[in-house]
Amino acid sequence: MLKSYLLILFLFFTSQFYEEVAAQTNFTIEGRILDLKTEEPISGVSIRVKESIKSSSVMTGSQGSFRIRLHQGQTLVISHLNYMPQEIQVRSGQSNLVIRLAEDPHMLSEVNVTGALGIKRQARELGTSAQSVDNQELNLGKVVNPLLALSSKVAGLRINATDLTTGKTDPGIQIRLRGTRSLNRSKNDPIYVVDGVPLPDITRINPNDIQDITVLKGANAAALYGSEGVNGAIMITTKSGRAERGQINYSNSTLFSKVFLLPPAQQRFGQGQNGVYSPVANESWGDRFNGEVRDFGLPINGVQPTKVYSAPDKDNRLDFFDTGVTVQNDLSFSSGDDKGSYYVSLQDVRIKGVIPGDKSSRTGVRFNGSRRFNKLNSSFNTNYVFFKNNTTSDGPWLSVYTQPANIDYKDARNWQDPSSPNHPLNWYNPVAGTRNPIFMADNNRNTSDQHTLNSKLEFNYEFTDWLDATFRTGLYFQSEPGRVTNRKLVSNIATRNINGSVNDTHRVFTRFNNDLILNFHKNFGDFSTKFLVGQNVRMDDTKSINISATNLLFEDIFNQGSRTGELVGGSTITKYRSLATYGEFTAGYKNYLFLTFTGRNDQVSVLDPGNNSYFSPGVSSSFVFTDAIASLQKSRVLSYGRIFTSFNKTGNVTLDPYRLNLSYSQTAGFPFGSLVGFTPSLSEPNRSIKPEFVKSFEVGTQLGFFNDRLRTDIVYAYSDSDGQIFDAGISRATGFNSTIVNAGQIINKTYEIMINGTAIKSKDLNLQFGLNFSYTDTKAKNLYAGDEFNIFRQAYAIKGLQYPTLRMTDFLREDGKIVLDPNGNVIPSEEEKVMGTMVPPYLFGFNTKFNYKSFTMGFQIDARLGSWMYSEVIPRMFAAGTHPETAKYDRQPFIMPNSMVRLADGSIVENNEVYSKGDKAWWTAYGNIQSVTAAKGDYLKLRELYIGYDLPQSWLSQQRMIKKASIGFVGNNLFIVRHSSNTIGDPEALYNQTDGYNSFRQIPTSRSMGFNVNITF
């Protein structure tokens, strides 16, 4: 017994000794891998023990974390394709090791991009095209709206600023990736994702807060977003703090804007009719300007005002517009340590518009923070923006294009003086449509106070080195109270009267978005696997209220209580719900061959329960052939090459909430008198509507030459959007005039070429350039009823033609010559003429950045070719006699050059003796021929220019406060080259969500110039 007891004690102490020795020589270490520049975690980094041949490597997860077992004094080898390798000797007792990797300058083609769900991925894994724009490129032109900053920087991406009713200092945005997929014009925007959370709108985000933007093109790249990603995705990553001493940045940008590209106007003939001057005429059909002093307008208190009858030396319409001013101030602070970081920013933007009285202000604050607690990683973002807008409502400048050239808009600004001829009661013409436009701008105001809050809370827990879970929730809230007022004006002349009105509105929108994601990643020898599965819940709630009175009693009281008549108004409440389950599996072989499968099942509340669930599958692959083929690995010419392809079938639902319900509304006088009655909607609900499906195919190659000094991407993409959901006209005998159908088809074919390179690279001199080109062919197929339907005004969807198509009335022609009637009048064609597509199929962008010592110059050139546009301004100018063509023949009868005449017997002969009158009636009829208003929309413009100077460090070395400082010149839209047929305006400027349509309501384009100052403390 004693021997046995001693033996047990001996074995126990021996085991304890060996355990202590082992504990001293074997231990497990945990750590994280971060990017040296951005402090962001790097996934997919390989960590192995150098001294152990049998040691298998571990890979970092989505948060850059790893865990590995090794002996005292052994060395860790850290490697990643995009970064410089590192070796670190580890000693016992170390924990929470943080390793920062620097990018490999020879692997520029190998970048990490922000993929779907906000997950960083190696570009070589993707079977789709993605293009990134960093902060420096994005803020070249110092624009306030981050979407406008993307213009012409991404192949296949088209961005237009649109003129909304309240958009004079806050333009709307139309954005299209690889063309149009839906016949519903308002349902073609990509999804916007900020730090992994989808948002309905990103125009309020401070561009200076953005680290980079990755554009995922088409449904293939954004497959995990299902319907929301069918038009691609704009992935935004905002800045985070760095684990270093705190840093403060301040910048100021001040830009001055002037309108340009107004349609030209004649300045030879002034106000009057039939060649005779009239002091109250608002048309330019009078006699020639001669410098005489003439009566102007009606007598004021018995005194007749007079004015010199002459045109100014410059375009008098320019005096209607102000010089716009945009002042942008930004302040940010960032700091952190090895376990966390934070970033705080403040922004204040003040904008004075080009329309008199228009102004807006925007004040925003952002906080981004992250913290690590062992295996738990947390992050929190919040951004609040208060936007205050005060603009004139739609209309005050309508008459500027049609009023005579002798109107002095500088004098018109003095309308408050009751004895002035510019006062609204004394204005030279009493017709309501030609009131003093300065008075109208001041009298009719649209104000709003918009509060926007978006926030994200995210937790990531690493169960093992091959499994982690992410819980992410986002809240977007926007409240926008607004008011539209029109001041009452009382006059003894009925046409001068204005009924005072007020309309109070309030819109509240809330979106809750939640994702739960499980992420598996494991290597098996030469094979790597990644698998994620997740669930998304989205809830949208909208409430809109308005109450208005259109007959106010007092001039200076805007209150619905002081009115005559009934109040008008109501409220609208809508809810939208969606539930989705998605998954993605990626298998890789030797890090050069990848195959990815995706799938997503959506359930949406806007469809009938029998049709509201649908599945969207996809597959993609990528092959880095320069790594797979030994003979190419040491090539001095081709340094990198891969090919990729993908296919997706994505369900898409473009219905608004409650469209499948038959709605009823009250109608005045129905059934008769004051009895209350309801009438049904004239649009028939169709509860059998199913999702439309978009089949997308993409193939491309990415090549790097000469040690990646030159890089290029070539891509072909195809999409087939079938079973379109849209309103189609039906026989009114059914009791409806339209119905919702699954019909129609749109085919998109896109070719893209992107070239980037470094032409010169030395110690003092650096020249980089980038070029992108795309051609998109969008055609309508298999329309519901017949071969066409009208979209808007002269825009049509026509089977087999590019979408949308401009079709207009033309002159009756014979052998290309205009045919007149026996009296010399123009004759409209019996059939409308197809002009061409209204969307430019050819997009071209070129940018360059030149650095020489402390000097920097960068510019962006944008070109769009192949489209048509038309204007509603032009016919009005013809009718008013302000268009230059109306003065072409000195207001005398003339024989139209190169014309023909249709005789009474129907024969058509050359015109040698039939005179056209050339008076108002003749030119009005001429201007009403719609093809007169059309022009080619081709253009090339210098979109952005920046010239900057960095203050030398020798200047700053005498103090410790300022680390870096720079000053620069900024210019936007500095010049434009248009097609010779285009005297309308800027083809890029659109009215609302139209294509190629220039409204008489929208304001002209502006060019801006100014300066920028940046200081780092």
Automatic annotation (TrEMBL):
It is a multi-pass membrane protein. Residues 124-233 form the TonB-dependent receptor plug domain. SUPFAM superfamilies: Carboxypeptidase regulatory domain-like, Porins. The keyword Amino-acid biosynthesis does not apply. GO terms for cellular component: cell outer membrane. InterPro entries: Beta-barrel_TonB_sf, CarboxyPept-like_regulatory, Plug_dom, Plug_dom_sf, TonB-dep_OMP_SusC/RagA, TonB-dep_OMP_SusC/RagA_CS, TonB-dep_rcpt-like. Signal peptide: none annotated. It is found in: Cell outer membrane. Keywords: Cell outer membrane, Membrane, Transmembrane, Transmembrane beta strand, Transport. Belongs to the TonB-dependent receptor family. This is SusC/RagA family TonB-linked outer membrane protein. It comes from Sphingobacterium paramultivorum. The lineage of its organism: Bacteria, Pseudomonadati, Bacteroidota, Sphingobacteriia, Sphingobacteriales.
